[in-house]
Each structure stands twice: as C-alpha cells, then as structure tokens.
Specification:
Helix 3 packs antiparallel against helix 4. The protein folds into 3 domains: 299 residues, Catalase HpII,  Chain A, domain 1 (Beta Barrel); 61 residues, Hemocyanin, N-terminal domain, CATH 1.20.1370; 142 residues, Class I glutamine amidotransferase (GATase) domain (Rossmann fold), CATH 3.40.50.880. The two termini are 29 Å apart. Strand 6 and strand 7 form a beta hairpin. The strands form 3 sheets. Strands 1, 2, 3, 4, 5, 6, 7, 8, 9 and 10 form a 10-stranded antiparallel beta sheet that branches. By secondary structure, it is an alpha+beta fold. The radius of gyration is 29 Å and the shape is globular. It contains 17 helices and 19 strands. The structure holds CIS-heme D hydroxychlorin gamma-spirolactone. It is an enzyme of class 1 (oxidoreductase). It comes from Penicillium angulare. Pfam families: Catalase, Catalase-rel, DJ-1_PfpI. Belongs to the catalase family. Its EC number is 1.11.1.6.
Length: 694
C-alpha cells in the first residue's frame, strides 16, 4: 500500500485515475457489490440445528455473489508478453523536433506528458520467472494532449520475422510445444530452433537473443526500441521515416547465465521487485529518447530496406538524435486494473506521426486492437489505465459489453441534424494520413532487399567484445543442447557458419553437430557502433540501487560493518545484512544487529556485491558455514565485487582459491585484484577503488 510514498503526484494521468480510485478505508463496512452491508461473511446460509449442519441454501445471495465473483476473476492472459510489470512516469522534451513533425509531444518543450510503461518477457505464461533468456517488451503509452501514443517496443532493435503473417507460426514455435506444453519461459526446445533454421530471416534477431541482451540485470538497465519504422510529418507536409530509441541512464547491464537460471528459481519476481523498490526509494529510472531519421527520398539509398524490421539502421549512416527523456516515477496502486488491463496498440499514433509500409507494422496494426477485444472486451479503451487524458468523444463508437461511459443526447450517428460531434479539420488538430502515392500490382512478395538475411547478423557478432562472444557461444550451445532431435541441432549448428565459422565449430562440438569446415557466407569482419552493450556504460559509474550484502555472524567487527553500511547507503546502494540468524547477531564489542535475512534465506545471486567485515566471526562461524563460504565462491564465479577487511581477507582468499588474487597484506591499506577488494584500515576508501561515485 505504501508503494507510492516517493512518487510524483503532479501528472495529469494520476489525477484522471483518481476518479476511479478508492482508498481501502478501515472503518467502512463491508458490503455486497450492490451495496447492502454484510453481517456475516464467514458462514453460508443453511438449514441447521444445534446438533447437525444442514444443507446450504441457494437463497444465500451473499455467498453466491462472493463465489461467483471469484470464479470469474481471471481474464485471458496476453497471447505473448503475458509476464510483465509496469509503472507510471513522465516524458519531457529538451529539444523540439518541429523540423520533422507537428506532433505536440515531440515539439512542445514546455510539456510534461504522463505515461505508462510495461516491461515483459515474451514466451512464458503470466506466472513465469522474470530472469529467463528472452526478449523483453518495452511498451510505452504516452497520454498526450492530442490522444494516446503507444510505442510497443522491445529491448532488442530487430525482430524475428519480416511479415506479420508469419507471427502465429513464429509464436507457436517458441511457445510450449502442443503435445505436452513444455517448456515454460524458454526457447531451448526443438520447435523454436526448427523454426529458426527454416526461416533464415530470424538470424539477426536470433544472435541478439543469444547475447547477454536477453538476460538483463534489471528492466532499468536495458534499452528500448520501437523496432518498426514509422513516419514523422512536418508542417510543410514533408515525411521522414523514423525509428524510436530509449537509452537508459544507468547503462545496459546483464546477468550471467548461471545467475539468471538460479534467480529464476530463487526469486521469480526479481525484476518486478527491482523496479518497484527503486521507484519506492525515489531512484527514478530514466531513459534518453532519440530518433533515427531517414528523409523519404532517401529510402532506397541503403543496401538493406529500411522498412525491414529484421535490420537496424546503422548509426554510422543514420545517427540517433536525442531529444527527450522518459522517467518512471510512480508504482501502480493495484496490479490488475492498472497493469494487467493495460492495453497497447501500435496503431495508436497522434497527428504528426504516421505509419510506414513496414510489413510487420501493418499486421501489428490489426493484431493489437483485435487481441484487446478478446482479452478485455469491446470497451477496453474506457478502462482507467487505457483512456486518454485529453477530451475524447465519439457518438458512433458506443455500446458493447460493459459500456461504462454515459453519453447524453438523442443521436448516435454522423452526420446528424444537430451537427453534433463534428470532425476536426487538420487546422483544428484532425488526424490526416500522409498522402503517399501508391502504384503497384497485388502480389504476395516483399522487395528484393528483404531477401538478404546474414550481413547484419555478422556485423552484430563481429562488434561484440570477447566476453560477449563467449557468452553468446555458450547460449547457443545451451539452447541446442536442450534440443533432442538431431535434425534440429545438427542442421542448426551448421547454419551458424553463415555468421561465423569459428562459432559454428565451437557450437557443433558442444552440441553434437558435424563440425563445419567452410563458412556458409564469407564474414569480412565488419563492425558497427552501438551493438556491443559495453558501449552503454553510464557516463558516471554509480552503485545507487545496487544490492549489496554484508555477511555477519556473532563476533563481527561492528566498526567496519557500520562504516561500510553507512558509506554504501550514502551512495544510494540498497544494503542488506545477512546474518547467521535473524533473532540477532552480536558484535565483538557487544552491539546487537538484527539482520535482514539469515544465511540460508538468501543467495549471493540476488546481490550485486558482498562485503565481509573483520572480527572473530570469521573464525567462530563463517569458516564453518558452508552457505557463507559458497556465497563468496559463487559471487566470485559470477564476476561480482567481493570485499573484506582484516580477518576477512584470508577467509575470502581461501574461498576463491586462486593464487593470483592478490590480497592486502597486513599493514597495506588496499588491494584490488579480479574484482576482490581487500584491505586493512580505511574501510570507506574501499568504495573509491573503482571510483564508484554517488
Ligand atoms: Fe507484439 C504484445 C512487442 C510483433 C502481436 N508485443 C506485445 C507486447 C510487446 C510487443 C512489448 C506487450 C504489450 C504489453 O505490455 O501489453 N511485438 C512487439 C514487437 C514486435 C512485435 C517489438 C516487432 C516489431 N506482435 C508482433 C506481431 C504481431 C504481434 C508481428 C502480430 C501479427 N503482440 C501481439 C499481440 C499482443 C502483443 C498478440 C499480445 C498482447 C497484446 O498484443 O496486447 O497482439
């Protein structure tokens, strides 16, 4: 209930939703949905005597209502992107894009536009785990003064298929298989990889999906992309094609695969809790908003077709122009009405923005509206989270199940004798489609350039760092290892040679394919900007909102514990004390600390770094505790910073078991080696080893 404590309240959408928001008031009596007060909610009405419990009565309207409402609580989950979470926020422009569009949201720098953003995974059901390997949805609904504008994007800039007609095949192949509904939250199965092999257009996206992009550390630490090509139209009527970008202030960071797998079981809600707690603590996540623009007349100037959603627009050719900032600053008050019922449509655009002939977008423009009708009913746009904040009125679109709005008046058609509800001219803000000239024959074909499927996958792979390439090789191997049909894993591992022979050989060896000897397509080693996630480190390193564990047991050194805790908290880190028991842990000097969790209640995977203060607790308890010892080993294996002082120094060194790790010798202030920071003396100075500022 306290989740909005630190949130901003000034935005118009919040005020709009207040009309339908009720406080849970402790003093208000319980009623039925039709308003009568209930005297006994715990017993059904029945015929009974002192000695026997008689049959329940159908007459009991109160029990019937309660059970019937419960029976109908569920609505169909989203057919894809079922698992997700969202938050409200704001969008502000710092530079007007009036040279390319008339859209108020992209030209008026004095505005603050309220918005809702829902993050999601694609494959799993509503109850699946957050940290699975998957594409993440990044769906933004901006409640602009001219109507809602939805950007229904992902954290990966390209897509699996080029034509929307392939979407049902693609989704069926990746979702759990039809005969046994397995697997959940994973693409590591025969049908998905069979589809990938049979559709070489998936190659580029498949490489992004096998990269660390598909296992983000946090929703707050990933990019957002509109993916499809839209149009912007300016007041002279000139059109630019556009792609939308959101770049996170915190940088792009990922888990390692072993962590992701473990967290999926240890805390399936890891990402949604991470988002909620950052917002609650007032650390509002931010993304810079940018445009890539291609003037209409330059559409044919590229070796790829800019309307093909399986291709990026290389930043060297089409730079990103950053013009605004998106911030998330308010958690929802109730998940079901505000997140589960949130519904996005790629077709929701505002004047100044238009579609393109991107064949994926055109199909999406049909699919989203359609799916909302089956999920939420015909009047889904009236729901508080979905309705616009600007005035809206249609005399014609009305009725249907669960109509909520009451429109006065005697006519429901246009034109009518009163000229009521007239259309708006363009000068009055009426939407007009870009008058694109069309000339062609009906055909089931795409332009020639859509047929090239490997170039950009090669450039993506070439642009990754060695570490990212290693992770990608492991991801391919993991996935194909989970395919048990040799037809699938053999021919797919061979196909990898269309991007990199070296990678294909490695994968074939791991998964039992036949080692390819020839590249299926020559890779000329070309690289490009903006593809490796290492390029997206935050300008100033920060530990704000990172989860840091401090391990303590009876006999710990209170002074180094407190100094580190206070210094971490002052820099905005979320500090958790993990102790031998939650009843309380007593320091060498007698102070009692009640830890947040006990050793077996948490795992190192759920933290970004660990600190062990000095003190006798090492000899007394930590060296004898398998969980504490494994905590250090596992953190190190996951490449996380581990720090310790005084008595903790040899303890940490021993768990890590690497001779090369240099630990601070007694008397030396500080040593950092392989991410392990050890020292004797100034505990606060440890935080400056890597210049991690506030
Ligand atoms: Fe989609 C949901 C993103 C292609 C059909 N999609 C959905 C969501 C996201 C995306 C983020 C979740 C929205 C939410 O949070 O409620 N989808 C994409 C992207 C695509 C894409 C970035 C490629 C550029 N989608 C795509 C195609 C089709 C669909 C080609 C159909 C032809 N998508 C749907 C859907 C969903 C959906 C079935 C399920 C729930 C919903 O729409 O509201 O209509």
């Amino acid at each position: 209930m306290a989740s909005t404590a630190n949130s901003k309240t000034e935005d118009g959408k919040f005020a709009d939703m207040q009309k339908d928001t009720v406080e849970l008031n402790g003093k208000q009596h319980m009623t039925t949905d039709y308003g009568i007060k209930i005297s006994d909610p715990d017993h059904s009405l029945r015929v009974a005597s002192d000695k026997s419990t008689g049959p329940a009565l159908l007459e009991d309207q109160i029990a019937r209502e309660k059970i019937m409402r419960f029976d109908h609580e569920r609505i169909p989950e989203r057919v894809v992107h079922a698992r997700g979470t969202g938050a409200f926020g704001t969008f502000k422009l710092f530079e007007s894009a009036e040279d390319v569009t008339t859209a108020g949201v992209l030209t008026d720098t004095t505005r603050t536009t309220p918005l809702f953003l829902r993050f999601s995974t694609v494959q799993g059901s509503k109850g699946s785990a957050d940290t699975v390997r998957d594409v993440r949805g990044f769906a933004v609904k901006m409640y602009t003064s001219e109507g809602n504008w939805d950007i229904v994007g992902n954290n990966i800039p390209v897509f699996f298929i080029q034509d929307a007609v392939k979407f049902p095949d693609f989704v069926h192949s990746v979702k759990p298989e039809p005969h046994n509904e397995v697997p959940q939250g994973q693409s590591a199965h025969n049908n998905f990889w069979d589809f990938v092999y049979l559709h070489s257009e998936t190659t580029h996206m498949n490489y992004w999906q096998m990269s660390d992009r598909a296992i983000p550390r946090s929703y707050r630490m990933m990019q957002g992309f509109g993916v499809n090509t839209y149009s912007l139209v300016n007041k002279e009527g000139k059109r630019h094609f556009v792609k939308f970008h959101f770049t996170p202030e915190l940088g792009v960071h990922s888990l390692v695969w072993d962590e992701a797998l473990k967290i999926a079981g240890q805390d399936p809600d890891f990402h949604r809790k991470d988002l909620m707690s950052a917002i609650d603590a007032g650390h509002f996540p931010k993304w810079k908003f940018g445009l890539q623009l291609i003037p209409e007349e330059k559409l044919d100037d590229f070796e790829f077709d800019p309307l093909d959603a399986t291709k990026v627009w290389p930043e060297e050719q089409v730079p990103i122009r950053y013009i605004g900032e998106l911030e998330l600053n308010r958690n929802v008050d109730e998940f079901f009405p505000q997140t589960e019922q949130a519904a996005f449509c790629t077709s929701h655009i505002v004047p100044g923005i238009d579609f393109s002939n991107d064949p994926l977008l055109q199909g999406r423009n049909f699919s989203y509206f359609d799916t909302q009708i089956s999920r939420l009913g015909a009047n889904w746009e009236e729901l508080p989270v979905n309705r616009p904040v600007c005035p809206y009125m249609s005399l014609v679109n009305r009725d249907g199940a669960s109509r909520h709005r009451i429109t006065k008046g005697t006519v429901n058609y246009w034109p009518n004798r009163y000229e009521a509800n007239p259309p708006a001219t363009p000068a009055q803000g009426g939407f007009t489609s870009y008058p694109e000239k069309q000339n062609g024959i009906k055909t089931r074909a795409l332009s020639e350039k859509f047929k090239e499927h490997y170039n950009q996958a090669q450039v993506f792979y070439n642009s990754l760092s060695q570490i990212e390439k290693m992770h990608l090789a492991k991801a391919f191997s993991f996935e194909l290892d989970h395919c048990d049909d040799p037809v699938v894993y053999k021919r797919m591992s061979e196909r990898v040679a269309a991007v990199s022979l070296e990678l294909a050989q490695q994968v074939a060896k791991n998964v039992g394919g036949d080692t390819p000897t020839k590249a299926l397509k020559q890779n000329k080693g070309q690289k490009a900007k903006g593809l490796s996630q290492l390029e997206y480190m935050p300008k100033k390193p920060t530990i704000a909102t990172r989860r840091i564990a401090i391990l303590i047991a009876d006999g710990f050194d209170y002074s180094s514990f407190m100094t580190m805790k206070e210094n971490l908290e002052a820099r905005g880190a979320f500090v958790f004390t993990i102790g031998a028991q939650r009843q309380g842990v007593v320091a060498e000097t007698g102070q009692k600390v009640v830890p947040d969790n006990f050793f077996s209640g948490m795992r190192s995977t759920l933290f970004d770094a660990t600190f062990v203060p000095g003190g006798k607790h090492i000899a007394n308890a930590l060296v004898k505790n398998g969980v504490a010892k494994f905590w250090i080993t596992e953190s190190f294996a996951h490449l996380k910073p581990v720090a310790g002082v005084n008595e903790a120094v040899p303890f940490i060194a021993k768990q890590i078991g690497l001779d090369e790790v240099k630990t601070a010798q007694s008397g030396s202030l500080l040593t950092e080696s392989y991410g392990v920071v050890t020292g004797h003396g100034d505990v606060a100075a440890m935080l400056d080893v890597r210049n991690i500022g506030p």
